[in-house]
Amino acid sequence: MRTRSNTHTVCLALLATLVLGALLVSRAAADGNIDPARRYAWSTSTGWINFSPAHGGVAVYDDHLEGYVWSENVGWIRLGVHTGGGSHTYANTSNADYGVNVGVDGALSGYAWSTNAGWINFAPTHGGVRIDPASGSFSGYAWSENTGWIHFKSDTYNVALLLVTHTLTITTAGEGSGVVTPTVGTHAYVSGTLVILGATPHPGSSFAGWSGDVDCADGSVIMNANKICTAAFALYKLYLPLILR
To answer: How does DSSP classify residue 153?
Structure first.
């Protein structure tokens, strides 16, 4: 498996893992979690490869892939021997423990198997396949000794996860006023997105804090469910001194 020589920080790697994990829909391998509108890879030798076929399907989990893809020319391609989801890492030492693993940055490694095409390497020396943590889109090339390169993304086709979205509703409260970001209203975000909240009071007002769902209070929310955050603005009060005559 390839490693990144320019890893920035452990925190960024952990964030990428959290975001990618949040994108993965926990559904059975028989159903899969590939977007039906974005399900095809391409091989010059074998043609279209369908990652969401009618009688198969691919399930992408935090650390591995399961299920079957279909090619009209070579038939079924199995992405791993493990079934049942959960956490799993394929050893890829024999035909009893092969499969495709998912790394912390979305990089895939390991092998798939086709009776007609043989072993398919998802992290070859001059290629490699990656799932983008933000968009769920596959990109890059896998390699088969018997059929050559399999391309996962171009301008006209792509394999991608079926994304889960949640809504963030922003409201304001109090006698004061101000500008908030995101703006007042309801906004949709891909599950796992970190949203930074902003509030700037108008002249004569002060910002009194965020309320609503629990994680609104610190000014940032991770979109793992629908949430409501409220910015409170107060008016400055002017007290005149009492002058006795």
So the answer is: B
